[in-house]
C-alpha cells in the first residue's frame, strides 16, 4: 500500500467514526474503541481533527455541550487538538450528509488516479473530498478538475468559489492553475474566488505562494500569509497590493450565509449567480459600483434579491435571452 493510499484509508476511517458516533448515544464500549483507534497513530488523530475542523466551519458544531473529557489525552508533543469537539458535536456533524450536501470520495490511490472532472450544482454548497484527503467546499456552481501527476497534486479551476483545506504532504505539493495564475501549497486553508475578469486569493491558515503567469512579462510571484488577500486579473497580472481581510466575514458562506458590507453590486451579483440557474447581468458600470450592505441565508437569496431591488429602485429586465438588472425608469 502506498503512502497516499494509506492516507486515503485513514481519512475514510475518520469520517466513518464521525458517522458511527452520531447513530446512537455513545456507549462505554464505543468510546473505548474510538479511543483505541485515535491513539494508534498521530495520523489518526490529525485525520479526525481535520474532519471535525471543517464541519465546525460549516456551522454544524455550534452551541453544543463540550464533552472533551471523553477524548484521549493529548500526546506530550504539540499537535493540533480535538479542542472544541464533543460527542454531541460529532453527532450533529454527520447531519452534513443528509442536509443536501454532496460528499464525493474517490477510493483510488492518489498516485494512480486519472484526470477527474467536477461540476457542482447551484442552490447549495458542495463538499468534495479528493483522493489525497484534501477537502474542498464549492459555493454553489463551480467547475474544476484534479489529477496526480509528476509527484504533484494538480487542480485546474475553471469557475466558481472554492474553499480549500489541503492535506499536508511536503513530498507532493498541491498546485492550482486558474485564469493565468498558479497557486502552490503544501498544506493549509485558503479560498479562491474566480470571476469573469479577476481571481481573488484569500489565505485563512498557513502560507500560500501565488504566481501570476502573463507570458508577455516576467513571472510575478509573492507569498501570502494567513489574513492576507491578493487579486490577479485573468490575463495573469497581479492587481494592486497585498491587503488584509476579515477571515470570519469572508467565510460566512461556509455557514450557509451570504454577508456584504459596502460591497459593489457587481461582486454581490457574481456570488449570487453561483447559486442561481439563471444568471443576472449588469451592463451599467455605475450601477455595478453601487455599494450593497445586506445579509441572508443561502436558501433566502430570492427574497433578499427582491428586497435589494426594492431598496435601490432597481428592476430585472429580460433582453435577448439574458436577465439584466437595471435602474427603474
Automatic annotation (TrEMBL):
UniProt cross-references to Pfam families, sorted A to Z: DUF4880, FecR, FecR_C
Transmembrane feature ranges: 84-103
PANTHER family cross-referenced by the UniProt entry: PERIPLASMIC SIGNAL SENSOR AND SIGMA FACTOR ACTIVATOR FECR-RELATED, PROTEIN FECR
This protein's record includes keyword Membrane: yes
Gene it is expressed from: fecR
Domain FecR protein: 119-209
Name the record gives this protein: Iron dicitrate transporter FecR
Protein FecR C-terminal domain ranges (all copies): 258-325
Span of domain FecR N-terminal: 13-54
Amino acid at each position: 500500500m502506498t503512502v497516499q493510499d494509506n492516507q486515503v484509508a485513514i481519512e475514510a476511517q475518520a469520517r466513518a467514526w464521525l458517522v458511527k458516533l452520531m447513530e446512537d448515544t455513545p456507549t462505554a464500549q464505543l468510546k473505548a474503541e474510538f479511543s483505541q483507534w485515535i491513539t494508534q497513530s498521530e495520523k489518526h488523530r490529525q485525520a479526525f481533527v481535520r474532519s471535525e475542523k471543517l464541519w465546525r466551519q460549516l456551522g454544524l458544531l455550534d452551541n453544543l455541550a463540550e464533552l472533551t473529557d471523553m477524548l484521549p489525552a493529548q500526546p506530550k508533543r504539540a499537535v493540533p487538538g480535538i479542542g472544541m469537539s464533543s460527542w454531541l458535536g460529532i453527532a450533529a456533524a454527520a447531519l452534513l450528509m443528509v442536509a443536501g450536501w454532496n460528499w464525493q470520495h474517490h477510493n483510488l490511490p492518489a498516485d494512480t488516479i486519472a484526470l477527474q472532472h467536477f461540476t457542482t450544482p447551484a442552490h447549495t454548497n458542495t463538499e468534495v473530498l479528493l483522493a489525497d484527503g484534501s477537502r474542498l467546499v464549492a459555493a454553489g456552481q463551480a467547475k474544476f478538475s484534479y489529477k496526480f501527476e509528476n509527484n504533484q497534486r494538480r487542480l485546474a479551476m475553471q469557475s466558481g468559489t472554492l474553499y480549500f483545506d489541503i492535506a499536508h504532504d511536503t513530498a507532493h505539493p498541491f498546485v492550482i492553475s486558474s485564469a493565468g495564475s498558479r497557486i502552490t501549497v503544501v498544506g493549509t486553508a485558503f479560498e479562491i474566488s474566480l470571476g469573469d475578469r479577476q481571481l481573488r486569493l484569500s489565505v485563512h491558515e498557513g502560507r500560500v505562494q501565488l504566481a501570476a503567469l502573463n507570458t508577455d512579462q516576467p513571472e510575478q510571484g509573492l507569498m501570502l500569509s494567513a489574513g492576507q488577500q491578493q487579486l490577479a486579473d485573468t490575463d495573469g497580472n497581479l492587481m494592486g497590493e497585498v491587503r488584509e481581510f476579515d477571515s470570519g466575514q469572508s467565510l460566512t458562506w461556509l455557514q450557509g450565509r451570504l454577508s456584504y458590507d459596502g460591497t459593489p453590486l457587481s461582486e454581490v451579483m457574481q456570488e449570487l449567480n453561483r447559486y442561481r440557474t439563471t444568471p443576472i447581468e449588469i451592463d451599467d458600470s455605475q450601477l455595478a459600483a453601487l455599494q450593497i450592505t445586506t445579509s441572508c441565508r443561502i436558501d433566502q437569496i430570492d427574497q433578499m434579491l427582491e428586497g435589494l431591488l426594492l431598496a435601490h429602485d432597481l428592476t430585472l429586465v429580460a433582453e435577448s435571452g439574458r436577465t439584466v438588472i437595471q435602474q427603474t425608469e
